[in-house]
Fold this protein.
Amino acid sequence: MEYTTNAPQGAAFLTSKMPGWQDRVALDRLDMQSATNCVLAQVHNMTYYDALDLLFPNTNTAQARYDAADSYGFDLPEWEKGTSVITRKGQWNQLRDEWVQLITELRSS
C-alpha cells in the first residue's frame, strides 16, 4: 500500500507560524512516532500532545486535533483495517524521511 504524506503542508504551516522552525529540529533524534522527539515536540520544546493543543486551540476534541495533525503530516491517519505492522512501520519511516528531506531543503535555501 502506497502512502502519501502531508508533510509539505505541515512544513508550510510551521513556516507561517514560526519562521526558522527547521533549525530547532535535531534530525538525528527525529522520530515521528515519539511524543517527545517528533517535529512538533522538538520545535515547541513540549510534548506532541501539548503542541497540538497550542497549534489547534479551536478544536474541541482530541480526535479533531489528531485529524488536524494528520492533515499537516504531523501524524499518520488512523490505522486502516488490514494494514500490517510492517506496512505501518514503513509508513512511519516514510513520514520521517519526508520530514528529513523537507527540513534539509529548508535549511539549505
About this structure: Residues 7-104 form one domain.
